[in-house]
Amino acid sequence: MSNYSVRGEISSEVTKELETYPEIVRHLLFHRGIVKKEDAEKFLKPDYERDIHDPYLLKDMKKAVERILSAISKEEKILIYGDYDADGIPGSVILHDFFKKIGYKNFENYFPHRHDEGYGLNMEAVEQFKNDNVNLIITIDCGTADVLQVAKAQEYGIDVIITDHHLSEKIPPAYAIINSKQLDCDYPYDMLCGSGVIFKLIQAILKKNNFGIKEGMEKWHLDMVGLATMADMVPLQGENRALAFFGLKILRLSPRIGLKKLLQKNKITQRYLCEDDIGFTIAPRINAASRMGDPMQAFQLLTSTNEADAENLADYLNKINDERKSIAAVIAKEVKKVIKKRTGSDGIMKKVLVIGNPDWKPALLGPVANNLAEEFNVPVFLWGRADGEFIKGSCRSDGKINLSELMEHTPPDLFLTYGGHKMSGGFSISHEKIHLLENELCKAYEILNKEGIVDDELFVDLKLSVDDVNWATHNSIEQLSPFGVGNEKPLFLFENIIIDEVKLFGKEKNHLELIFRNNEGKKVSAIGFFMTPKNFSMPILRGEKINLVATMEKSMFRNFPELRLRIVDVI
Questions:
Q1: Does domain 459-570 have CATH number 3.40.30.10?
Q2: Domain residue spans in the chain?
Q3: What span, in angstroms and rounded, lies between the C-alpha atoms of 432 and 455?
Q4: Is the CB of residue 157 less than 8 Å from the CB of residue 175?
């Protein structure tokens, strides 16, 4: 259970400025820092021409475009080297589809094996590319930190164009680096994901040479850009908001056979696809390919033109995702046993939770850490080794602290490597240092807390009544969608509401439904997946009064629209 504060009322000046919008919209805009009518119009009504910036503002873009066009004209062999996650794979699909569209054939897609090769350019792979007579490597969502590997490729006469959105202290000697986070890059927005960056590259190529493609056809690539932007937890503000907004529109129309099969098998109606479907269904299955085996399987699903192949690949991704969830459930159970032993009778938990087991596969720990961070409201660092030489792990934030800043405030020799952003990250550490990890992270947490960087206060956007759970309210809230990092789903507090029914559903009865009644006696449902009454410290029984923290959502289960609440907490 957490303590929540309700966000304050908006000023009379802002109320007047935004008077054309419903009260709830004004309130939500204000608490997202939007106080001018002009800014509200831009936020609520994304415009492709206005919000998508000129790709040639990115550093090295002109150089990269000229090198790619030269490679195409000379029919040089191009190697697309994509990261193995739900950003790198869609980005690789985009470039693959572009080359197919313009009729270029001398290219290959390559993904490193998550367990055997690890993240980024792999030295053995570079050696193989030399033997395969590759002339140009284009990275997607990786490469910025790969100084030695890029130098080796250049030494072999293979030019490297890096497209990425990660930071690194040392800059690789690449032919060109397209990354809006570079300090000397003048691009007006620096939070694009990897797929967003590769989309900018394609935009730039078509500005220089459209290859006879009808103007605007590149917008069909926005299905993969939108998918990656929402899956990769980049802020859904600025240009990313436009990419996610229009990406969802294209995803709902996308002709991709593999995507259609995956949605059908998970009972998602394509025309009603939303950001939650990406976060909870599509992205986990794309990521499962590399976590459990070969990322190429997810890539082949998204590029498939054969219905039978697409069906088999969709079945395969569903199967391995189920296997991943089973293993993750076992790990989560082990973690909770450790937590119970550590906290003892006083129930006091450390500021940062660090737990590991040499037998755990590091690739499977991210989703587990995410669920634990949500359940226990602390940053969680999980580690494993499996067959690896070093200990590797994943970390997730509870939203109160920036994980990247937390790891930066540890001793410089603690981690072998680390990276990430506010909400998620990864790290590697030596066997000799692993016993120091929890203590050093807790020290770093205290330093950040004293500096006022830890945000211990949790907020709900508004107090609502059960009567406010109606389509008019929902439609007002939906004007701010799609929701994600930097534009979180609005949280609402329902005070002193009486539980009318308590239900458990699902095969294992591990999901919770609470039923309330509005003043007209109509049912209002609140759903909590992977929740039971045991998750809360107060009684969850028929007739009990509770304070509910929840979001509002439209369910399209069996293609029937139902308005309901999604339980976040009971306080």
A1: no
A2: 55-218, 349-450, 459-570
A3: 32
A4: no
Q: What is the CATH number of domain 349-450?
A: 3.10.310.30
Q: What is the 3-state secondary structure (H, E, C) of 254-291?
A: CCCHHHHHHHHHCCCCHHHCCHHHHHHHHHHHHHHHHH
What average pLDDT does range 24-39 have in this prediction? 95
Alpha-carbon 477 to chain mean position: 22
Pick the CATH number of 55-218 from 3.90.1640.30, 3.40.50.20, 3.10.20.740, 3.90.226.10: 3.90.1640.30
Query: Average pLDDT for residues 458-487, to the nearest whole number?
Result: 94
Cβ proximity of 384 and 354 under 8 Å? no
User: pTM of the full predicted structure?
Assistant: 0.91
pLDDT tops 70 at residue 346: no
- Backbone φ/ψ region at 386: left (φ over 0), alpha (ψ -120 to 50), beta: left
Angstrom distance (rounded) from CA 211 to CA 434: 54
Contact between 273 and 251 (Cβ < 8 Å): yes
Of residues 431, 350, 351, the one with CA closest to residue 383: 431
Please report how the helices 307-343 and 296-303 are oriented relative to each other, as an axis angle in degrees rounded to 10.
Answer: 140
Q: Are 95 and 68 in contact (CB under 8 A)?
A: no
Task: Write out the two tokens for 345.
Answer: 């009778």
H or E element in which residue 549 lies: strand 545-555
Tell me how crowded residue 523 is: count the other CB atoms within 10 A of its CB.
Answer: 12
pLDDT recorded at residue 347: 56
| pLDDT tens-digit series, residues 198-219 | 999 999 999 999 999 999 999 9
251 and 541 Cβ atoms separated by less than 8 Å:
no
Amino acid code (one letter) for 339: I
